[in-house]
Design a protein that fits this description.
With about 400 residues, this protein is of the alpha/beta class. It is built from 15 helices and 12 strands.
Length: about 400
């Protein structure tokens, strides 16, 4: 980590300033050390990444053994004493998303048209990030970091709960204005009212308490700044739907809970089986048996996208089943979150549910909303984003890929 990062990060337990105790460093760059807080907590810096989790020492026994003398001299209060219930509640997600990025996604998302995807989700052209301080909460492997850099962001802080933050750090290494930390967005280790634009894509709904996560991130934005989120939409039941989407989703919650605890190889095999099941259902549909195909497709639910290749569909299924929690949200619910935290001028983009709001010094009434008509992925793609072949990975990595593969 670079020492300038101290201007933005804080103790996740009390939000006080942190000081650095370097063990290994080169100039202004600390590769291994401790971040200490006046409340008595401390957090290891491992592989140049501040591990700002209350349970960080439990995750890094090798670090504890290597630096036990320094730790004994001033024992961190969170060495053994931390909120074990919260840690346990997010442990499945932390492991799953480390596997998702390192073993499943790998580099697939980096070759997509992420500038177009950012604008489709936020309603904000990336060029408006120029000169801004950006916080990417739940950055995964850092797929949007090049977008922020290319847009001219003044500085970027990227955070992830899982070890995918190490992939993000690799991608950020060439950019001195990009900083990466490991942290929990339910206890974000950053100072209040700091960022011009906070972004969280596809993360809140897999936490134990999405609204709490929203509230915590809402406080990271300075007055006049923006908060952009993307969460999974709660599907509406149509009058002719043979199996209501909500029933299909919640009826298999116990299955999802059991599958999320499988070892990674079995979980991956299950997700491949869902892809094969859906391909069978679509074959039935082509024969004219639509209602039968609908039931097969939804039992158990999957995350099928017809224009995506097999690899992307398997990754989507993994995303759907790997976590202990996966909540669905309506536009109305998301708008209420923004209102309660003093945001206004909320833009709801054509892709659901993705929104951006502006923080005001005082809550205003009524809530001003720019609600775009909901658009299909086909309509979004028609705005100029290239579509890749459905039967295999992109053959020309220099060409932008399809929004369909990630939206």
């Amino acid at each position: 980590m670079r020492r300038e990062l101290l201007a933005w990060i804080a103790c996740p337990l009390c939000r006080r300033d942190l000081t650095v105790q370097p063990f290994e460093s080169s100039g202004d760059h600390v590769t291994e050390g401790l971040l200490r807080c006046g409340c008595g907590a401390a957090y290891p810096i491992v592989g140049s990444i501040p591990r700002l989790l209350a349970e960080a020492f439990q995750d890094r026994p090798a670090f504890v053994r290597k630096h036990q003398a320094a730790l004994r001299a001033r024992m961190p209060k969170n060495l053994v004493d931390f909120d074990k219930a919260l840690v346990e509640d997010v442990s499945t997600t932390k492991v799953a998303y480390g596997n998702w990025w390192k073993k499943m996604q790998r580099d697939q998302s980096y070759h997509l048209d992420n500038e177009a995807i950012f604008e489709a989700r936020t309603g904000v052209p990336p060029s408006e990030l120029a000169g801004k301080l950006v916080f990417d909460a739940g950055c995964g492997g850092g797929r949007f970091l090049p977008t922020y850099v290319a847009a001219g962001a003044k500085a970027v802080l990227a955070m992830d709960l899982s070890t995918a933050c190490e992939m993000a750090a690799d991608h950020a290494a060439a950019h001195p204005n990009v900083h990466v930390i490991q942290g929990n967005l339910l206890m974000p280790p950053v100072k209040t009212g700091t960022f011009d634009h906070t972004v969280t894509f596809g993360v809140l709904m897999i936490t134990p308490d999405p609204q709490r996560g929203f509230r915590e991130l809402a406080h990271t934005v300075k007055v006049g700044g923006r908060l952009s989120i993307y969460v999974y939409e709660r599907p509406m039941t149509k009058w002719d739907d043979p199996l209501p989407p909500d029933l299909a989703w919640y009826g298999f919650g116990p299955l999802r809970g059991a599958v999320s605890n499988l070892p990674h190889p079995l979980l991956e095999a299950f997700c491949r089986g869902l892809w094969a099941k859906r391909r069978f259902a679509e074959g039935i549909r082509r024969l004219g048996f639509r209602r039968i195909a609908d039931v097969i497709a939804r039992v158990p639910p999957d995350a099928y996208k017809p224009m995506e290749n097999a690899a992307f569909n398997v990754v989507r299924n993994y995303d759907m089943y790997a976590c202990k929690y996966t909540f669905l949200h309506s536009v109305e619910e998301v708008l209420e979150w923004y209102r309660e935290e003093g945001y206004n001028d909320v833009v709801v983009t054509p892709y659901r549910v993705a929104a951006t709001g502006t923080r005001f010094a005082e809550a205003g009434e009524p809530l001003r909303v720019k609600l775009h008509r909901k658009a299909s992925v086909e309509e979004i793609e028609s705005r100029g984003v290239r579509v890749d072949p459905a039967d295999g990975p992109p053959t020309d990595r220099s060409e932008p890929a399809t929004l369909r593969q990630v939206l």
